Amino acid sequence: MDFISWLETLPADTVGKLYSSHWACQAVLRGLTSLAKQYVIRMLFLDVPVTKSVMDSWIAQSSKSKHATAINRLKGLQLLLPSNVASNGQQAAYQLHPVFREQLRWAVSTGGKVGIDEVPAGVLQQAPSREMLSSYAQQQWEVITVPLLNQLKCTCGLGSSFASLQTLMLYLVGSICAESRSIEEQGFQFLLSDTYSQLWRLLRAYIASGEERSGAPLGTILNFLLQLGFREVGSPFALSGLDDSQRHIAADMAQLGLLMPFTAKDGSVWLAPTRLALALAGGSSGQAQHDVTDGFVVVETNYRVYAYTSSLLQTALLRLFTRCECILPNLFVGVLTRESVTGALACGLSADQIVLYLRQHAHPHVASRTPVVPEVVADQVRLWQADTMRVRHNRAVLYDDFPSAQVFQLSAQKARTLGVWLWEDPKAGMGRLAVQEAGHDAMREYIKSIK
């Protein structure tokens, strides 16, 4: 679930309050599809409602489905509201959310950028470089995600900072456990997803927990986070310029790797956004992932996987579904085998997730080829998954000792009609019939009625 999808799940009143911030309005605009963006821009400086017929005329007949999808997304975000005033008094008309329209107008007219703080020359000289920011963000993010891999708890070498991040980790574990009883299955699926999805999943739990712990409004937390997403990477700002609630959020974001703190010679504390912060307001997950993570995986038709990475987390993830053959300081070499893939499937992964991971993390030299993952490899991984699904288990109820063959035949026909039929044996006595447990009550009443 990305930022836009999450907003659609919030109550209309809450979303309306969020639109009082131009940061939220700009982030929403970034996250919309191209067609939905065009509709917003067309209506942005209109003070009168737009009728449905006019909006339908904006697209060709061949694009009706895309038009309907864009309109539904705008309605779900409370951006497109029905108007009581229409041109002929009868036809439906729409207008942009008035608060959203006002804030986005201001952002478009003024540039909507974060105000640049007066940064002394000495502070700029001490500010971390982009390489330092990237290394810090990767290390901090791995400290958060590594504990989900039990085999890395003692060998990753990153345990020194884990104690200070236990609270943040609980947010993540809590959000995963709320969706499934199996922390193992959901945990591995989380780790294989792209950085943008991981970040927003954690932040959703963080925002909810922040409201409960401090009582801070959702808008206060979210607006500060979105503001970070619009700052330039490496552009420092002073901690002293933040209020108390923002300082607490900034401290947590520093532990997540979104902000890197450093101290100037005069003792003042400054914060520099890292590349991870771009994902906060980075639009679609694909774009954010391209901004945040560099590809490093090459998959060959002989099932070999070459990963140019020194990340212990990424190496451990690759070990989940490949057989490791060689590890160098900046290179992992593995092979996709039936045993390694079926072992990953037993942990709760799917073939599509494995292929998607390899595709999303493709090295720039192979990312432009089609397909990124050779078809023979992708198809074989899916076939290995199909081999594990030959037998399907269903909770069932067995009926036997029917009073007559006619009752058995009518019961079997009824089970097929209800869609709960599983198996039958007409040769065993007066017949035996197995149906899904969900259809037991209906079948029992039917058999009683025809006896």
TrEMBL record:
Compartments in which it is found: Nucleus
GO molecular function: ATPase activator activity; double-stranded DNA binding
GO CC, any one term: transcription factor TFIIH core complex
InterPro entries (UniProt xref): Tfb2_C, TFIIH_p52/Tfb2
Main location: nucleus
Residues annotated as domain Transcription factor Tfb2 C-terminal: 379-448
A GO biological process held by the record: nucleotide-excision repair
Functional summary from the UniProt entry: Component of the general transcription and DNA repair factor IIH (TFIIH) core complex which is involved in general and transcription-coupled nucleotide excision repair (NER) of damaged DNA.
UniProt name for this protein: RNA polymerase II transcription factor B subunit 2
Native source organism of the sequence: Coccomyxa subellipsoidea (strain C-169) (Green microalga)
